[in-house]
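HUMAN: Would you supply a protein with fold tokens?

ASSISTANT:
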Amino acid sequence: MAMSSLARRKSSLLLSKSLCDSSDAFKYSLSLTSFSRGFASGSGDDNDVVVIGGGPGGYVAAIKAAQLGLKTTCIEKRGTLGGTCLNVGCIPSKALLHSSHMYHEALHSFANHGVKFPSVEVDLPAMMSQKDKAVTNLTRGIEGLFKKNKVNYVKGYGKFISPSEVSVDTLEGENTVVKGKNIIVATGSDVKSLPGITIDEKRIVSSTGALALSEIPKKLIVIGAGYIGLEMGSVWGRLGSEVTVVEFAADIVPTMDSEIRKQFQRTLEKQKMKFMLKTKVVSVDTSGNGVKLTLEPAAGGEQSTLEADVVLVSAGRTPFTSGLGLEKIGVETDKVGRIIVNERFSTNVQGVYAIGDVIPGPMLAHKAEEDGVACVEFIAGKEGHMDYDMVPGVVYTHPEVAYVGKTEEQVKALGVDYRVGKFPFLANSRAKAIDDAEGLVKILAEKESDKILGVHIMSPNAGELIHEAVLALQYGASSEDIARTCHAHPTMSEALKEAAMATYDKPIHI
């Protein structure tokens, strides 16, 4: 009898167990639990599931709960669904990344393809309008999904008054109490502030302000060299800003494989993005027309100054858990404010759950979505699954960088014998044909079993290419499995096949 999908997943998790950090309490595995739906009786006011927060984790959890037949209410304070991601994060940033890339290509690359214009200019209001239109259409789309799936939607700020009751100050200025047998906290995260720096969203901006600038700054300083800082720096750099990235750590994007990271930084530097690593921001002066930063080496030393028209504070995000009444009902949090949950996303308070950015794990929209589905499945007595080793990361610059699984540094730290296979896009026919061949694919596999441990891609559309690798890791595939899988020609994905060939044997085209 053929092995079921569930059995294969269980087998894959067992195979990967020895390669996971055993101290990480958040490597979730499949499990079963008994459940009784227990629909409301009496007044009929009780819900089976109440979700506080309408971001990627919250709205997905609400829809999934309703699909499983549970009476569901979602509470969202913003008044529009989609959370930070859709309103002031993932979606608007990708809209601007795409628009700015089109402008950059028209300015620098179109002529090489025989497409010429007398002149090319930026219409910033039109660019912002296109971004806003995308956001509006998508938020309305989620409201439509709520109606389709019969999810009750309450617009307002919710906070616990008991483990089964949420008081909501509605956007209409009223107050209502929403009752639920199971309540999921999905309130996401907020911008992490830095001491002595006040964000006014005009000259000193967060990612929210950086998505809504009314003019292109001549000089932009980005504090923080993570995903958001590099992406927003790329947007304004393409549109003509002189961009300098100031980072306290020694490297950009610390979760990235070091070999890929170094090549990625060189690529960004070729795009005229400047980096000041191992550098600390001492103070900020906004008394003049612009912004003046006083800097010093992270290890201490002589101070220097740097001036800009706009400063983007992009030093990470922090869980949004304050003001929810968690302490009132006794929900435990850790020292950075994250809610402590078990493998079923349950807090120490019966009937209260948490998902997404408010719990440990990568602060990514797609991680929150998977958390939401798994959490609701556990509530419904079904099988929930979430493995944070299988969450891909993507930096949406150009080229993009995407990765899943272990970095080479992590594999070395585990003491595992491994092989490395690499293939450059300079040897990929599709990349050469479209004149966009910067980057590579890197695969790490266990030496004895050939089981894939990690895949790292730097290329155009790497965020799309990575999912073949995610699926391979999810089901415990070997590099030979990918190498022996027919890939269409000519495609960028052939580089992944060639890297897999290089891992277990030899590539053909290099």
Q: What stands out?
A: Residues 124-149 form the longest helix (26 residues). The radius of gyration is 24 Å.
